[in-house]
Amino acid sequence: MPPLKKKKRTIFNCFFVSFLITFASQAEGGVLHPSISKCMRNGRLSYPEQVVPRDCELRHLFCASPGHRLLSVDYNYIELCTLAAICEHEYQYSILARVIRANIDPHSFTASQLVGMPLESFCALKTSGNSGDREKYAQHRAIAKKVNFATASGQTRIVVPDVKVEQAKAFRLKLITSIYPELKIILRDDTIMSLATNLHCNPEAVKVNLSYHGRWNRDTVSEIADVVCGNRCSSRHGYPLSKKWKKQVWDGLALINRNGALSEAISSRAGSPTLHSVLFGKFACTLTGRVRARTTYTSALNTVFSGLAADGAKLAMWNLTHIGYRVVGFIHDEIVVEVPEEADLQHEAALVQQVMEESMASVAPTIPIRSTADVADRRCLDPKKCFSDVGTLLPFMPQEMCPQRIEME
After folding, report:
1. Tens digits of per-residue pLDDT, 306-318?
2. DSSP symbol at 364
3. Poorest-pLDDT segment among 10-24, 154-168, 392-406
4. What is the helix (H) or strand (E) element at residue 211, kind and residue range?
5. Per-residue DSSP letters for 235-298?
6. Helix axes 191-199, 273-280, angle to 10 degrees
7. From residue 333, how far is each of 44, 110, 329, 363 by CA, in Å?
8. For the chain, what is the radius of gyration of the CA atoms?
9. What is the pLDDT of residues 234-258, one digit of tens each?
10. At what angle do helices 345-361 and 297-322 cross, to 10 degrees?
């Protein structure tokens, strides 16, 4: 194994000890079988074990079984595709959907708008002969990707490496007002309606009796939630919540509550996470009809598009298994199957991509679904798509390979 830096070596040692313990208890015939939770509350899969770090040496430990190769197919910006499908379904228009239909990478489009460059000029940086330009492209696209997903998930305070807080806030504002204005609608705060629904009262009564000196904003909502949850301090700002404010919240809730099932909990004035979920919880429903109850503002937003992508991916894995493929891995939006070494890799990749794209299109039918495929003998950090001189897909061979073998299952 090539020398590892101190930090990488520490990560490797911690992982390797944990891995040996896990492998000893779960291995069957030298094959590692992960324990998977098939349906979390948001619909996605979950791996309880520690995720393999993004380290080449560690990824190379996981390889195909003898006589096979790993065919990995990754959906392209799939959660933005499902988000665009939801926007079109709800509001009958979406700039994000138009960008995806034009076969434009939405992260690159966002980045070009944030830096104020024409899209063609920005994308030209990717293939520039100047390494500084290529680095600039990668950096700004990574920032745009973070802003896209964090904003869609309902985060108002986006933390982006090497970007000041105020600039990140400006990026978010520009994203929802001028780049993809439909996001401003889907991100509207409906906390008043959720509270009114759960308290069986009028929304106006909530605003009048629970506002802070006549003001109703995110800080007000957050600090009402802190009181109901039983927190002593503001979760947004860290300062202690005053007794006067706590009394105002409990008095207001008692005054407007018309839900008999909540009367005792409110009159006790004992905040708890359970009471918080009952008062602030709302229903979230995916386009596939799966309903999630008692979600928070951010969980509700995340469920509708992330859960929809999960539904499509699970359908894709079922369809691949049904036609005879051996699915050995599913990592976020990437499905890994094994194919024989002598197989026509170009044909196999095209077939797996077709099945995956058609499966996802069945849950998001108005948006074109695209994917990227690569083949390798073992897991790689950033595999490249390789072709022969005649255009045949070839397996990617990283320069530094680890001699150990752990078969994927």
Report:
1. 999 999 999 999 9
2. S
3. 392-406
4. none
5. TTT-PBPPHHHHHHHHHHHHHH---HHHHHHHHHT---HHHHHHHH-EEEE-TT--EEEEE-HH
6. 100
7. 10, 21, 11, 15
8. 25
9. 877 788 989 999 999 999 999 999 9
10. 140
Q: Can you read off the two tokens belonging to residue 167?
A: 């600039």
| Sign of the CA dihedral running 204, 210, 215, 219 | negative
Task: Give the Cα separation of 68 and 378 in Å (integer).
Answer: 10
Cβ neighbours of residue 89 under 8 Å, at least 6 residues apart? 287, 366
Q: In the numeric block, which tokens belong to residue 88?
A: 């079109």
**Contact assessment for residue 210 and residue 220, using Cβ atoms and an 8 Å cutoff:** yes
Token pair, residue 39, equals 């349906």
Query: Distance of CA 18 to CAs 15, 23, 25, 35, 57, Å?
Result: 5, 9, 11, 15, 16
Phi, psi for residue 156 in degrees, rounded to 5: -100, -25
C-alpha 110/C-alpha 115 separation (Å) is 9
What pLDDT is attached to residue 214? 75
Q: Which two tokens stand for residue 217?
A: 């904003």
> What are the tokens at 353?
């991509």
- The predicted model gives 47-70 an average pLDDT of 70
Phi and psi angles of residue 382, each rounded to the nearest 5 degrees, phi first? -135, 75
DSSP state of 284: E
Q: What tokens were used for 112?
A: 């070009």
Q: What angle do CA 90, 94, 95 make, to 5 degrees?
A: 165
Q: Phi/psi at 4 (nearest 5 deg)?
A: -110, 145
* Spatial separation of the C-alpha atoms in residues 386 and 396, rounded to whole Å: 6
Q: Please count the residues of the chain.
A: 409
407 within 8 A of 33, measured Cβ to Cβ: no
CB 233 within 8 A of CB 226: yes
SS3 132: helix
- Decide: pTM greater than 0.85: no
- Range with the lowest mean pLDDT among 216-220, 229-233, 245-249? 216-220
Spatial separation of the C-alpha atoms in residues 108 and 318, rounded to whole Å: 32
Assign 218 a pLDDT band (cuts: 50, 70, 90): confident
* Per-residue confidence (pLDDT) for residue 128, from 0 to 100: 92
Q: What is the pLDDT of residue 297?
A: 85
pLDDT of the residue at 6: 52
Q: Which amino acid is at 156?
A: T
